[in-house]
Design brief:
It is built from 24 helices and 13 strands. It is an alpha+beta fold. It has four domains: 149 residues, Beta Polymerase, domain 2; 86 residues, Hydrophobic Seed Protein; 178 residues, Hypothetical protein af1432; 48 residues, no CATH class. It has a seven-stranded mixed sheet with strand order 3-4-5-2-1-8-9. Strands 6-7 form a two-stranded antiparallel ribbon. The chain has a two-stranded parallel ribbon with strand order 10-11.
Length: 475
């Protein structure tokens, strides 16, 4: 619960920081207004850590640059045409933007930049009331024309103006609602949620890159599930990631199976918890979180209702990997992220064969080889994929995965598994067989790699003998 007395005290402390005090004096001496705006004010009131400092002013860009140059070590044009100047003041990076009064072209939803004349006018054009507050400096006056403080107290997300107008101006704000709902753990006001459902199709005019950026920010929050539920319930997610709402498979009275949608959200939450416990100082792992969310998207296309009430999803891992790759490419994710997510989905069922019966050392080596650099992510995803309420089954699966991780560590120590190679390299293969570079060298290399995986180190002499036998058998 927001404590206003403590929040006001935090705002005062924020205003006393060297960078804000320096900027406030400089703009006041120049006869210009300056205010901290948006996220820093919201986070100070909530007692959250503030990272980026954003300021707004009645000064135009050229004047902003003249004011900040004497008090900053470096300056740059973040976007002079949009009214923004960046600078490093007192060791911190800041951005100062002229009051805005944007209008939109109605087709691409790109803003036509118009400079405004009042702080209140600038605040009203912002996305949500909790982001539409400002603290004038150096006077330390809180400006809240849209009721942001009341919405902070109520833990509610609401647009400053009619949500249909706000989202009509910039449909990406609908995605931001989901992100802030997760980030702040707030509920979206009913009129605002209704407007998202009504206008969801307008998101189709927003570029895939912008949508991908907001989806990434949502997945980086501590609990993205709240935001994902909002996107599914309003129909917005179906516009750009329809595979997730499609997980809500219909169940009839004769065929019963796990709720795949709820299971996927649980896997996402459990993957995040494991990610934090195993790597507490690491940044949010977006590829892992995408893989957790998407790991079962192949099930709707592979579901088969069996006689007797059973349901199967044969090869949903392969189908899901292909669907994920296609969808992430459409959202303009980079190739590394796309390939990692697709590979994790393809491999996420592999471990369950181990749980049914102990693997040989060669099977463990193959598991490691196939996972490659994504082995740790695969560990987390596979553990998170256990959502059964059967405590005995959950304990058996956890114990099996403890065992496979132990065996992987032992094999790595024994055989330097991370640098696994055949005992004879390509040059030696050519020398022994009397052949030049070509397809046969690759086939021979693969044969020796299989020997290594199946039997471990056999020694160079034995490897050479096996190679000659293999070559002779080929005729």
């Amino acid at each position: 619960m927001l404590n206003m007395a403590e929040g006001v005290a935090r705002l005062g402390a924020l205003a006393e920081s060297p960078v804000i005090a320096t900027l406030g004096r400089a703009f006041a001496e120049a006869g210009r207004d300056l205010a901290i705006v948006g996220g820093p004010v919201r986070d100070a009131l909530l007692g959250r850590e503030t990272h980026d400092l954003d300021f707004t002013t009645d000064a135009r860009p050229d004047e902003i640059l003249r004011i900040v140059t004497p008090i900053s070590s470096v300056q740059w044009d973040v976007g002079r045409e949009f009214g923004t100047i960046g600078a490093r003041v007192a060791g911190e990076q800041v951005e100062v933007t002229t009051y805005r009064a944007d209008s939109y072209d109605g087709v691409t939803r790109k803003p036509t930049v118009e400079f405004g004349n009042t702080l209140e006018g600038d605040l009203v054009r912002r996305d949500f009331t909790v982001n539409s507050m400002a603290l004038r400096v150096p006077s330390r006056t809180l400006v809240d024309p849209t009721g942001g403080v009341e919405d902070l107290l109520a833990q509610t997300l609401r647009t400053p103006t009619d949500p249909r107008v706000s989202f009509g101006d910039d449909p990406l704000r609908m995605l931001r609602a989901a992100r802030f709902a997760s980030q702040l753990e707030f509920d979206v006001e009913s009129r605002t949620a209704d407007a998202i459902a009504e206008l969801r199709d307008t998101l189709s005019i927003v570029s895939p890159e912008r949508i991908q950026g907001e989806l990434t920010r949502l997945l980086q929050t501590d609990d993205p599930v709240r935001g994902i539920r909002l996107l599914v319930d309003t129909g917005l997610l179906a516009v750009f990631l329809p595979e997730i709402p499609a997980l809500r498979l219909e169940v009839d009275e004769h065929h019963h199976h796990k709720d795949v949608y709820e299971h996927s959200l649980t896997v996402l939450r459990q993957a995040i918890a494991l990610e934090r416990s195993r790597h507490p100082d690491a940044s949010p792992d977006v590829p892992l979180r995408l893989a957790a969310l998407l790991h079962d998207i192949g099930k709707p296309a592979t579901r088969k209702l069996e006689r007797g009430g059973g349901v199967t999803f044969h090869h949903h891992d392969i189908k899901g990997a292909r669907l994920a790759k296609k969808r992430l490419q459409a959202l303009r994710f980079d190739s590394d992220t796309t390939n990692v997510v697709s590979r994790l989905i393809e491999l996420h069922l592999r471990f369950f064969g181990y749980a049914e019966g102990a693997w040989t050392d060669s099977a463990v080596r193959r598991y490691v080889r196939d996972a490659g650099a994504e082995l740790e992510r695969l560990h987390i995803l596979t553990r998170a994929d256990v959502t059964t309420r059967n405590k005995r089954k959950a304990a058996r699966l956890a114990g099996a995965y403890d065992d496979i991780e132990r065996r992987i560590d032992e094999l790595a120590a024994q055989e330097q598994l991370d640098a696994m190679r055949p005992e004879l390299d390509g040059n030696r293969i050519q020398e022994i067989l009397g052949i030049g570079p070509g397809r046969e060298v690759g086939e021979a290399y693969k044969f020796l790699l299989d020997v290594r995986l199946d039997e471990g180190l056999v020694g160079e002499d034995e490897a050479e003998r096996r190679l000659r036998e293999w070559w002779a058998a080929r005729g």
